[in-house]
Amino acid sequence: MNPTSDFPVLTDETVLFDMRPAARAYIGLIVWGILLLPFFLIGLLLLLRAWYLVAATRYRLTTQRLFVQRGLVAKHLEEVELFRVKDVTLRQGVIERLMGVGRVIVLSTDDTAPRLVLTGLLDPLQAKEQVRTAFREARRREGMHTAEFIHS
After folding, report:
1. Is residue 134 helix, strand or coil?
2. Residue 4: what pLDDT?
3. What are the boundaries of each domain within the chain?
4. What does CATH list as the number for 14-142?
């Protein structure tokens, strides 16, 4: 299947990244699955869950939008226009740092997807910075300026 066919891309849009979660992000599930393989069904279910989380999730960042697609047969696609993004954060626990993976959390003003979590990313700091740069550029292109309200 052509990887670009799953996501709608406009002619003036450029893909900045297109990735899946790293399998090592689910090392806990994989290890437990292997350890519990003697109890065939439990171990197999854990290994299948880890495989599904990697195979059924895809993230794409373009110059205008961020997409999160989940599902193998039935697909669920979340999309956020980058000019709507308010903030981008990075979360890494100790094990995630050792494994070189992390979560990027994107907060937006979008009603259907106010919080998108990109889990299991390799080099999550680079991914966070790519999202940050892209949303700042999208806001500049749209002529929008950040206005923060500090509550007293």
Report:
1. helix
2. 46
3. 14-142
4. 2.30.29.30
